[in-house]
Specification:
Length: 402
C-alpha cells in the first residue's frame, strides 16, 4: 500500500497543490477513502506552520461527525508514541475553539467556524491517526490509554470524541471498500397497497414479486442520475435505442393497459428488505435489469401519472452477497446481448484502473459502462470512450481510445 500511495501522490494534482509528501498522503486519504472532491480536499488540508497538530479537518454532515486527521507517511516499519501525543494536543486545543482560532494558521481559522456549528449540533469528533507504519509496543500501550481517557472524558464534559488508528492494513481495507461503493446506498419504501404482491423465500433467499403501477415506478430514487443502477453493467443507452422506442410507443399507445404483458419486468436486488404496515422497505436497492425501461418511463412521466391501469412486474431479491449478485446481473441481461467489457465493468480491477486514471488526470473521466456519460466538469479530451480487455495467457492487455 505504501508503494501504491507513493506512486499516486507523484501525480500532478498532488504535486501542484501540496508542498510535501505528508500533505499529499493526507490528501490522498481524503480523496480515496473519504471520497472528498478535488476542491474539498485542498480546502480540508490545514497542515503547515501553526496547524496545532491538525493536518486536516472536515465536517461530514451525513455521519454527523467532525473528522480530525493527523498523518504520518514514513517508510519505517514502526513509529513511536509522539504522533499520539500530537493527537492528544489537538484534542485539548479543540476544546477551546476561541483560543485555538486566535493562534492557529489562516486555513484552520476558516475551518473552525464550520466545526463550531457542527459541535453546537452535537456532532461527534473522530480523531484519525493515519500512518503507513505500525505502532511500537509503547505506542500501542499509549493508544489504549488515550482511547480509554477520551471515552471517560467524553461522557463527563459533553465533548464526544474517539481516536482511531488507521494503519496500512486498515488503509487497504478502507480503500477496497471505497472502491466498491462509487455510488450512495439507496433506500426506498414501496406502498404495497397500490400493488399486487407476493412475498416468498426461495433457496433461503427472501423475494417479493410485485405488480407495480407505472406511476409508482417513477418514484424510485436515482433513476435520473443513474445511482439506482450502480450494480448494473451499463447505463441508459438513450431514447433512440430501438427497445426504448418500443417502450415509449407502448406507453403512448391505446394499448398501454397491455404494457405488463409486453414487458419482461424489472429485477432489483437489495442488501435488506422488510415488510411493515403494507410497506416494502428496501435498503441498498439497485436495479440490475431494467435501466433502459425505467429511464424511458421517467422520460414519459407526465403521461405515466395519468395511467392508473398500467403496470409493470418487479422482482425484488434480498442478495447481500456480491458473487450471487454478479451472477444475477449476467443471467437477467439477455434481452440485449452483453459484451465482454460490459461483464467486466464492475470488476474490482477495472474500478481500480478507473480510480488510478482519474487521479492522474483530475479533469478526465474513465467510462466503464455503455451509455455512461461524464460529469459536466470533466474534460471531453481526457474522457476514455472505449475500454476493451483481452486475456492473453495469464496477463490482461488493456486497450483504450481517447
Amino acid at each position: 500500500m505504501y508503494n501504491k500511495i507513493s506512486s499516486d501522490i507523484a501525480q500532478s494534482y498532488y504535486q501542484q497543490n501540496f508542498s510535501n509528501d505528508g500533505q499529499r498522503f493526507v490528501a490522498w486519504y481524503l480523496r480515496n477513502i473519504h471520497l472528498r472532491d478535488l476542491i474539498q480536499t485542498r480546502d480540508d488540508i490545514t497542515d503547515g506552520a501553526d496547524d496545532k497538530q491538525i493536518n486536516a479537518i472536515f465536517v461530514d454532515d451525513e455521519k454527523e461527525t467532525v473528522f480530525v486527521i493527523q498523518g504520518k507517511f514514513i517508510g519505517a516499519s514502526t513509529i513511536d508514541p509522539e504522533p499520539l501525543r500530537e493527537v492528544l494536543s489537538a484534542w485539548i486545543q479543540l476544546r477551546d475553539l476561541v483560543r485555538l482560532q486566535e493562534v492557529c494558521n489562516n486555513k484552520l481559522k476558516q475551518k473552525l467556524a464550520e466545526v463550531a456549528r457542527a459541535l453546537e449540533d452535537a456532532y461527534e469528533v473522530c480523531f484519525e491517526l493515519l500512518t503507513t507504519a505500525k505502532l511500537s509496543a509503547s505506542a500501542q500501550q499509549d493508544l489504549a490509554t488515550f482511547q480509554e481517557q477520551l471515552a471517560e472524558l467524553s461522557e463527563r464534559d459533553e465533548f464526544p470524541a474517539t481516536l482511531v488508528l488507521v494503519h496500512e492494513d486498515e488503509i487497504r481495507r478502507r480503500y477496497d471498500l471505497a472502491l466498491e461503493s462509487e455510488n450512495p446506498c439507496l433506500t426506498h419504501s414501496l406502498d404495497l397497497k397500490t400493488c399486487q404482491s407476493l412475498s416468498v423465500t426461495i433457496a433461503g433467499t427472501r423475494a417479493v414479486i410485485a405488480v407495480v403501477p407505472l406511476s409508482e415506478c417513477i418514484k424510485f430514487p436515482g433513476i435520473k442520475d443513474g445511482t439506482l443502477f450502480q450494480k448494473n453493467v451499463r447505463q441508459s443507452l438513450g431514447l433512440s435505442n430501438a427497445v426504448n422506442k418500443g417502450i415509449k410507443n407502448s406507453i403512448y399507445s391505446d394499448r398501454h393497459r397491455d404494457f405488463f404483458f409486453f414487458h419482461n419486468g424489472i429485477t432489483a436486488i437489495c442488501n435488506k428488505l422488510r415488510i411493515s404496515n403494507s410497506t416494502l422497505h428496501l435498503h441498498g436497492v439497485s436495479v440490475v435489469n431494467g435501466c433502459q425501461s425505467l429511464n424511458t418511463i421517467l422520460s414519459c412521466s407526465e403521461k405515466v401519472k395519468t395511467l392508473s391501469d398500467t403496470s409493470l412486474l418487479f422482482r425484488f431479491y434480498e442478495i447481500p452477497q456480491r458473487d450471487r449478485a454478479d451472477k444475477i446481473i449476467i443471467s437477467t441481461n439477455s434481452q440485449s446481448a452483453l459484451k465482454p467489457r460490459d461483464l467486466r465493468s464492475n470488476d474490482k480491477r477495472v474500478l481500480n484502473l478507473k480510480r488510478s486514471y482519474e487521479q492522474k488526470y483530475p479533469k478526465g473521466y474513465f467510462r466503464t459502462k455503455r451509455g455512461e456519460k461524464p460529469p459536466a466538469d470533466r474534460d471531453d479530451q481526457l474522457t476514455v470512450f472505449t475500454l476493451r480487455l483481452f486475456r492473453l495467457d495469464t496477463k490482461v492487455l488493456i486497450l483504450y481510445a481517447l
